[in-house]
Write a structure and sequence with these properties.
Blueprint: E1 12-16, H1 17-28, E2 32-35, H2 42-55, E3 58-61, H3 65-77, E4 82-87, H4 88-104, E5 110-116, H5 131-136, E6 140-141, H6 146-163, E7 167-172, H7 173-176, E8 179-183, H8 215-234, E9 240-242, E10 249-253, H9 257-267, E11 274-278, E12 281-283, H10 287-294, E13 299-303, H11 309-320, H12 322-325, E14 329-331, H13 346-357, H14 366-377, H15 392-407, E15 412-414, E16 432-434, H16 440-448, E17 460-465, H17 466-482, E18 487-493, H18 522-529, E19 532-536, H19 541-553, E20 558-564, E21 579-583, H20 598-603, E22 608-611, E23 616-619, H21 629-633, E24 639-643
Parallel strand pairs: 2-3, 2-4, 4-5, 5-7, 6-7, 10-11, 10-13, 13-14, 15-16, 15-17, 17-18, 18-20, 19-20
Antiparallel strand pairs: 1-8, 6-12, 9-11, 21-24, 22-23
Helix pairs in contact: 1-2, 1-6, 3-4, 9-13, 15-19, 16-17
Length: about 650
């Protein structure tokens, strides 16, 4: 994405939605950007980092989303334009500060870009973060295509400065990670000089105290900003209508669903019967604009992802204006026309239109149906989610599971978010039994560790990654130490934020801009808090297992075991193999071995495959990364490892 700041005004390119957002921020003259990695939002901060040196922008991956928002807000208070980016779960993390920020307001334009994940394509939930805009009373914008993603981002900074309020801009996975044609505008030539002024009157928004109190005055100002936003939204160019003056059916939509609606209308040839009102300003809604279009028809279909946020707000306006616009028949999520979960697509929208319009839609041709029937009759093989070949987490969970079985007290692991969420799956040997938010595994373990007085003898453990440790686990460890909770915490340190693309974190010696940065030592933090700390290599299965058993048996408070091994897919390990792995077919007994094909049936590294014809295990040399662990789990020692030449 380095070319984003090199393209000239009038040039066009095929951009991902996240790239378009980056270009929009650059055209607006953004000076500070902060965030925390999270798919589908990560490319926004990464794209801005690539432009940082050429355009004098400061960019950072912050320790978590709350801190990222605070960093961006500081820039805004100093009259610089700033942006904060995160996925939907991150808004929950940032909400504590966000609740106060909307009370104090901002100075330089500040935009919060959040990327929802309908269908939970890369998430453990598909939370709809739009509701924060209404809950906290701040403007919400939703681009409906790739050009709008750029243009609306640039405009969001102007809107923020006019209102002196943070502005939320929402993307979704299919917009963030799909691509479309974008025409560029001019880059800003604003220099940007930071100065935090605080010598004015207590309530002066430009030079006074930046705080969310006194509550009565600040809340009143906050609601006045919402009212002003509604006025601006009435004539926004990002709210568009296409269709007849008096449509048989009015479709109201926003965000990526705009593209689904357009395709459905065009595919069914309903351009002269159905009107499409695409809203880019979705909270507060432009009441006059909606009243105008609701008056044009008696039937309204609302298309959105995920929850009926837009639908409920439109229905409120329709109820309040019922005498003026008449009673409406709605087709939406509340009526069961669209599901309350998951992604939408053009087929779902077309099916809804066919039903609502009473269209006699011709069925597919017989040849197509026969082909589809034959294809469906050939069942696709079941393939569970698995950890990558050579993943150190597989070795960690293997040792954890063995240690729990040898301990014999029905111990369990409180899981966490990251690649290691696979601890709840067969690929992680079903070792983890809880899974919630980042850092919550350690918080839960802290609670379980205090239940001995109620007869609980099961040892409680937790896992978290190195990035998650800095993000959210430190407070939980402090809590566990202070309350003398008897738990074992395993930090799976693979030297980066692996699940979202190896973004740096405070435990590394560089930042996102490639600059040297002080490493915040993980083990020193834990020791300073008061925990016992051990460090092991998860690829050494026996030593790791023995250490876990020893820590589980120790009754003395909080124990932290750092299992340190670089991720197999890390750029630092590219083209590096520790070992060349081979199976000695003369020793491998296959089905005749008492292990029951343990290597491919239980350990299940994708680098190990089963040759049905030979009845032997084999190494897939294409994807094997040479970690050597499989040699240690073969009971007949049929898997051999040879030192690999380096360089």
């Amino acid at each position: 994405m380095s070319y984003l700041h090199e393209m000239k005004e009038g040039d066009s390119a095929l951009l991902m939605g996240n790239e378009a957002i980056v270009r929009g921020a650059l055209e607006a003259g953004v000076k500070v950007a902060a965030g925390y990695p999270g798919t589908p939002s990560s490319e926004i901060i990464e794209g801005l980092a690539k432009a940082a040196s050429g355009l004098n922008i400061y960019v950072e991956w912050s320790v978590n989303e709350k801190v990222a928002m605070e960093v961006a807000a500081a820039a805004s208070f100093a009259r610089l334009r700033s942006i904060c980016a995160m996925k939907q779960n991150g808004v929950n993390v940032a909400s504590d500060f966000l609740l106060h920020l909307v009370g104090s307001g901002v100075r330089g334009g500040m935009v919060l870009v959040f990327c929802d994940d309908p269908g939970a394509l890369s998430s453990v939930n598909e939370g709809d973060a739009r509701f924060f805009s209404r809950l906290m009373e701040m403007p919400l914008l939703e681009p409906g295509d790739f050009q709008e993603a750029k243009d609306m981002t640039a405009w969001a900074f102007e809107l923020s400065e006019e209102l002196k309020q943070i502005v939320m801009l929402r993307s979704v996975t299919r917009l963030s990670h799909a691509s479309g044609k974008v025409t560029f505008g001019p880059l800003s030539d604003a220099e940007g000089v930071a100065e935090f002024r605080f010598g004015g009157d207590f309530l002066d928004p430009d030079e006074g105290l930046m705080a969310s109190f006194p509550v009565d005055w600040k809340h009143r100002r906050q609601q006045e900003k919402v009212a002003r936003a509604r006025e601006i939204f009435e004539t926004s160019r990002f709210n568009t209508y296409e269709g007849p003056e008096r449509p048989e059916l009015l479709m109201i939509t926003a965000s990526g669903c705009n593209l689904y609606c357009r395709e459905a209308i065009n595919s069914l040839g309903l351009e002269d019967r159905v009107g499409l009102l695409k809203l880019g300003t979705t909270w507060p809604l432009p009441v006059k604009l909606l009243t105008k279009h609701l008056s044009s028809t008696d039937r309204v279909m609302i298309v959105e992802e995920i929850l009926p946020f837009l639908e409920e707000n439109v229905k409120i306006i329709a109820a309040e204006r019922a005498r003026e616009i008449g009673v409406k028949t709605f087709f939406g999520k509340s009526e069961g026309v669209f599901p309350m979960m998951g992604e939408l697509n053009p087929d779902l929208v077309m099916a809804a239109l066919v039903s609502a319009m009473g269209i006699d839609c011709a069925p597919p041709c017989p040849e197509y149906l026969e082909t589809a029937r034959r294809t469906a009759s050939v069942a696709a093989p079941v393939r569970d989610q698995v950890l990558c070949p050579g993943c150190p987490h597989r070795a960690s969970f293997f040792s954890i599971r063995r240690a729990m079985e040898m301990d014999g007290r029905r111990g369990f692991v409180c899981g966490d978010i990251g690649c290691y969420y696979m601890g709840i799956r067969p690929s992680g040997f079903d070792a983890a039994k809880t899974l919630h938010s980042m850092g919550s595994g350690t918080g839960l373990a802290s609670g379980f560790g205090k239940l001995e007085r109620f007869g609980m003898i099961q040892p409680a453990m937790s896992v978290c990654g190195d990035s998650t440790f800095y993000h959210a686990a430190i407070p939980a460890i402090i809590n566990a130490v202070h309350n003398n909770s008897n738990i074992t915490i395993m930090v799976l340190d693979n030297k980066g934020t692996a699940m979202t693309g190896f973004q740096p974190h405070p435990g590394l010696d560089h930042n996102i801009m490639g600059e040297e940065a002080p490493e915040v030592n993980l083990e020193k933090i834990c020791r300073a808090i008061g925990a016992r700390v051990e460090i092991r290599d998860p690829f050494d299965l026996e030593e790791t297992r023995e250490t876990i058993n020893e820590l589980m048996a120790c009754p003395d408070g909080v124990k932290v075991l750092i299992l340190r091994q670089v991720c197999a897919l890390s750029p630092d390990r590219k083209n590096i193999r520790n070992f060349i792995m081979k199976v000695d077919e003369n020793i491998c007994l296959g089905e005749e071995c008492g292990c029951g094909r343990f290597c491919t049936r239980v350990f299940r590294c994708p680098g190990l495959i089963w040759d049905k014809e030979k009845g032997k295990a084999l190494i897939d040399e294409v994807i094997c990364v040479g970690c050597g662990v499989c040699a240690d789990i073969c009971p007949s020692q049929a898997i051999r490892k040879e030192e690999a030449a380096q360089g």
